[in-house]
């Protein structure tokens, strides 16, 4: 039996409290000022397309597992402390997110930075969960932000192409 990796990832994210619809909500937040007729359904389709990319799948699987291992106190010594406390100078959570953004070009990076600062919707909820120590969300916030930003970039490129036609 072959497991569809994008479906497995969607399931894993849901187990960790994030749905694809919530990520699509972030994409809508980013792109609706430019395309007022943009629907959540279109955003969701684009989020799903992003999750079909191998680089994205690898980043998400790795990040989620590291959050889980931190919760299980399995990372050992220095790494355990840094990931568990979401140490601000650790930075590898952002670097992993960059591997998702790399696939969709520069618009993805600016969008990622923007929602990372504002933390709208599900990003605010993830941030809260991480800060209260309820669970480890060190990687999850960056992964979710990057997937939403990558989907926004995908939409911008496609809509841009339509305008040039
Ligand atoms: Mg983080």
Q: Count the E strands.
A: 0
Indicate the radius of gyration in whole angstroms: 16 Å
Bound molecules: magnesium ion
Question: Helices and strands: which structural class?
Answer: mainly alpha
In percent terms, what proportion of residues is strand? under 5%
* Percent helix: over 70%
Mean model confidence by pLDDT: 95
The low-pLDDT segments are none
Name the helix and strand elements from N-terminus to C-terminus, one letter apiece.
HHHHHHHHH
Overall spatial form: globular
What is the tally of helical segments? 9
Task: Describe the largest sheet.
Answer: none
End-to-end span in angstroms? 43 Å
Structural descriptors:
mainly alpha, globular, binds magnesium ion
Protein described:
Helix 1 (5-15) runs parallel beside helix 4, helix 2 packs across helix 9 (140-164) and helix 4 (54-71) crosses helix 5. The mean pLDDT is 95. The longest helix has 25 residues, at 140-164. With 165 residues, this protein is an all-alpha fold. 72% of the residues lie in helices and 0% in strands. It has helices spanning 5-15, 20-31, 40-50, 54-71, 77-84, 92-101, 106-118, 122-131, 140-164. The protein binds magnesium ion (MG). Magnesium ion (MG) binds at residues 86, 93, 138, 141-142.
């Amino acid at each position: 039996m072959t497991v569809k990796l994008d479906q497995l990832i969607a399931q894993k994210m849901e187990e960790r409290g994030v749905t694809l619809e919530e990520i699509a909500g972030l994409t809508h937040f980013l792109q609706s000022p430019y395309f007022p007729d943009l629907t959540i359904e279109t955003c969701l389709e684009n989020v799903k397309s992003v999750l079909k990319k191998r680089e994205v799948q690898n980043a998400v699987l790795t990040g989620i597992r590291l959050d889980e291992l931190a919760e299980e106190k399995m990372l050992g010594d220095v790494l355990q402390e840094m990931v568990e406390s979401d140490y601000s100078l650790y930075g590898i959570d952002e670097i992993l997110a960059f591997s998702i953004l790399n696939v969709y070009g520069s618009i993805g990076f600016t969008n990622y930075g923007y929602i990372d600062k504002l933390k709208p919707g599900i990003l605010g909820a993830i941030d809260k969960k991480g800060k209260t120590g309820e669970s480890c969300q060190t990687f999850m916030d960056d992964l979710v932000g990057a997937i939403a930003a990558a989907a926004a970039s995908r939409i911008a490129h496609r809509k841009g192409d339509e305008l040039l036609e």
